[in-house]
Design goal:
Shape: elongated
Number of helices: 3
Number of strands: 17
C-alpha cells in the first residue's frame, strides 16, 4: 500500500475502531494552490487517482482479502476442509493445516506436521500470535495465503488474504465523477476543547465512542455544512468518514473516506474530488467504520470515487 493511504487507514482504524480498547506519500487537498490553472489541478487529481489504483492493486491490499472468521474459545481448526472453523480457499491449503487456540484474547497456533507455514520467512510450528490491536500483527504465510489475528472490540478473528485472489486479478479501475474545482472548498476549522466524543458505528454493528478534534465548516450552494474530523496526533492531518445523498446510487451505500492536510490559521482545504471508497466497497471481509450521524450530509457530493461493482470498472 502507498504510504499515504496506509497511514490514513491506520489512523482511521486507530481512532474509530480501537480507541480506548481499535487504508494509505499522496498529498491531501492542498496539492494544487488556490488559483492554480485547471489543467495543473486536473493532473494533480489524476496523479492522486493513479496512486490510489496502484494501492488497490498491491498484493497486500484490500482486494486480496478472501476470508474473515471469528474464533471461538478453545481450539479452532484451519485448512481447506469445510468442517474447519477457519476455511481456506479450496486448493490453496491442506484439508487440515493446523489449529488456532483462543484463550481470552490470546491466540496461539499449532501447525499440522508436514505443513509449511512461515512468519517473516521463518518456519513456524507453534507460536503465540500478536493481533492487529497490538500494532503489527504476526502474519503467517502458507503458499499464496497470508493470515493473521484481528481484534474488534470483544471479538477475535482470523483475516485471510490471497496474493493471487480472483478479485485482485479482475481489478482494473474505479470509476469517478468528472473532476470539478467547485468541489474543492475552503472550510473553517472549529476545534473541540476538550475533544468531542463521537459515536461511530461499524459494519459489525458495534459502536465506538471516538474523540473528534473538531469540525470543518464549509459553504456549498448557499448552505452551510459541517463534518466532525479525526486528527492524526503527530502530523495533524484530518480524516473523515462521511455520507451524502449519492450513497446507494452513484456511490457506495455506506459512505466514503476523505482526508485533508492539518488546519492552518484555522482554515482547511477540503477536496471532495479525493473522496474514496472504504475497503468494504471492495470486499465482504473488511470491518469498516460507517459515517457517524454528524457526518451524513444533506447534499449530493458528485465528486470523487463512485461505487465499485457490477456496471462499474
Amino acid at each position: 500500500m502507498s504510504q499515504r493511504f496506509r497511514l490514513f487507514s491506520r489512523a482511521l482504524l486507530a481512532f474509530v475502531l480501537l480507541f480506548a480498547a481499535i487504508g494509505p506519500g499522496l498529498p491531501a487537498a492542498a496539492a494544487a494552490p488556490a488559483g492554480a490553472d485547471t489543467a495543473a489541478y486536473r493532473e494533480s487529481i489524476a496523479a492522486w487517482h493513479r496512486e490510489r489504483i496502484a494501492d488497490l492493486k498491491n498484493q497486500d491490499g484490500w482486494l486480496t482479502l478472501v476470508g474473515l472468521f471469528w474464533l471461538q474459545e478453545g481450539e479452532n481448526r484451519f485448512g481447506s476442509g469445510v468442517a474447519n472453523r477457519v476455511i481456506f480457499p479450496a486448493g490453496k491449503a491442506p484439508e487440515l493445516a493446523g489449529t488456532l487456540v483462543l484463550h481470552g484474547k490470546e491466540v496461539s497456533v499449532q501447525v499440522a506436521p508436514g505443513v509449511a507455514v512461515t512468519a517473516d520467512g521463518k518456519p513456524v510450528t507453534s507460536a503465540v500470535l500478536a493481533a492487529d490491536a497490538a500494532g503489527k500483527p504476526t502474519v503467517l504465510a502458507l503458499g499464496s495465503l497470508r493470515f493473521f489475528v484481528i481484534q474488534r472490540g470483544d471479538r477475535v478473528g482470523i483475516r485471510v488474504k490471497d496474493t493471487q485472489s480472483p478479485a485482485l486479478a479482475a481489478f482494473h479501475d474505479v470509476d469517478t465523477f468528472p473532476v470539478s474545482e467547485t468541489w474543492r472548498v475552503e472550510a473553517r476549522f472549529e476545534p473541540y476543547q476538550p475533544p468531542k466524543k463521537v459515536a461511530v458505528p461499524n459494519v459489525l454493528g458495534q459502536v465506538t465512542e471516538s474523540p473528534s478534534a473538531g469540525a470543518v465548516v464549509f459553504e456549498k450552494d448557499g448552505r452551510t455544512y459541517r463534518l466532525d474530523a479525526f486528527q492524526d496526533p503527530k502530523q495533524g492531518d484530518l480524516s473523515f468518514v462521511f455520507g451524502d445523498a449519492t450513497n446507494g446510487h452513484e456511490t457506495y451505500g455506506a459512505g466514503r473516506f476523505l482526508e485533508t492536510d492539518a488546519p492552518k490559521d484555522g482554515r482547511v482545504m477540503i477536496d471532495f474530488n479525493r473522496a474514496y471508497n472504504p475497503p468494504c466497497a471492495f470486499t465482504a471481509f473488511a470491518t469498516c467504520p460507517l459515517p457517524p450521524k454528524e457526518n451524513k450530509l444533506a447534499l449530493r457530493v458528485e465528486a470523487g470515487e463512485k461505487k465499485y461493482g457490477e456496471g462499474h470498472p
